[in-house]
Automatic annotation (TrEMBL):
Secreted found in the keyword field: no
Residue ranges annotated for the Porin domain, each copy included: 7-341
Protein name: Porin
Matches recorded under Gene3D superfamilies: Porin (2.40.160.10)
Length: 365
């Protein structure tokens, strides 16, 4: 009887799936570049390497939806990053230093006329916002993406809401800290809003992420864009205050030059790192196949590495040319230059500047 019941239930599920309006898609990007980098270590040696893409990291994933009626859909997405040169997975964690199976995104949710609700590992609101308002859509090399490390990219245990109503695009998310007896330790939350009207777009974002001790890393920003002919102009501002030490120690210190983690974290609680960052950039569709992008970032940092009045600056310029061989395949070339001064010199391993150049190919499937 038990075996018959299982067979009957399986048959009912299969019959139901045959008539349901559902879909599952396998997708991904394979992006590799040959990159040259100056002053790559404490000896200021040059480096040649085969590495992941300049503006897109290689990834693969599954996403799907099922129509539930009345414009309501069940949705899911599972996405993991990887390095094609080694086959290694990305998005390492403290519990899994070799990477996560679905480290980029892993969520299930509902979507309808009201918007979209998702539960799982997701992008932070800061990343969602600046992905639309950065000329590079947030780069992939440290040398062209560092301004947006303040967003921390992703968070675990998140419930999010996103909705589009005419020209208004809004989002809010909350990440459970999952610490017994505390609602704030390891907690994340953020909110964003953007409005598009004609060729203009403008918006802002705020978020904060707390560590296991309840110290918080805050990030806020505002940006705008304007399209004219085949060009689009971008301007933006990012501010931050970090009492956790994670931005200095976890993201923006070169491993060969960074102080010990305990030193940075202990100092940051009383002397938080503060960022005042601005950028301006332009994209130009020169031909249907050729897109050109240029952007300049500048940051003034206070209390670098948790040391009071240890201030400094970082400047970056990036040029990118992308040529489409087809709808799915592009080749590209890029050049970037970074310079640091004062307290931010620990963000470089040797001299206070680096120049990089790369050629790459990207295939989307």
């Amino acid at each position: 009887m038990k075996k018959s019941a299982i067979v009957l239930a399986a048959g009912s599920l299969l019959a139901g799936s045959a008539f349901a309006q559902s879909s599952v898609t396998l997708y991904g990007i394979v992006d590799q570049s040959i990159r040259f980098q100056t002053n790559s270590n404490a000896n200021n040696d040059n480096l040649w390497e085969l590495t992941n893409g300049a503006v897109t990291n290689s990834r693969w994933g599954l996403k799907g939806s099922e129509a539930l009626g009345n414009n309501l859909k069940a949705i899911f997405q599972l996405e993991g990053g990887f390095d094609p040169d080694t086959g290694r997975s990305n998005q390492a964690s403290a519990t899994n230093p070799n990477g996560r199976l679905f480290g980029r995104q892993a969520y299930v949710g509902l979507s309808g006329d009201f918007g979209t609700i998702k539960l799982g590992r997701q992008y932070t609101e800061g990343f969602n916002f600046f992905g639309d308002y950065d000329p590079l859509t947030i780069g992939n090399y440290t040398n062209n993406a560092w301004p947006f490390f303040l967003t921390q990219f992703r968070s675990d245990n998140v419930v999010s809401y996103g909705g589009k109503f005419g020209g208004l695009d809004v989002g809010a998310s909350y990440g459970f800290g999952e610490q017994p007896g505390s609602m704030t330790k390891n907690q994340y939350w953020g909110t964003r809003a953007a409005y598009s009207f004609g060729p203009f777009g403008i918006g802002g974002v705020y978020q904060e992420i707390r560590d296991i001790n309840g110290n918080k890393q805050q990030m806020w920003g505002a940006a705008g864009k304007y399209a004219f002919g085949p060009a689009k102009l971008f301007v933006g501002y990012v501010g931050g205050k970090d009492r956790t030490g994670v931005i200095d120690n976890g993201f923006l210190n070169n491993s060969a030059a960074a102080p010990a983690p305990a030193v940075v974290t202990a100092g940051a609680a009383s002397n938080p790192r503060k960022d005042t960052l601005g950028y301006i950039g332009l994209t130009y569709q020169a031909t249907p196949a050729l897109a050109l992008t240029g952007v300049f970032y500048g940051d003034y940092v206070e209390n670098k590495n948790g040391v009071n009045d240890n201030n400094g600056r970082r400047y970056t310029g990036v040029l990118l040319a992308e040529y489409s061989l087809s709808k799915r395949t592009q080749v590209y070339g890029t050049v970037d230059f970074n310079k640091v001064s004062g307290g931010t010199t620990t963000e470089m391993p040797g001299r206070n500047n680096q120049t990089g150049a790369a050629l790459g190919i990207r295939h989307i499937f």
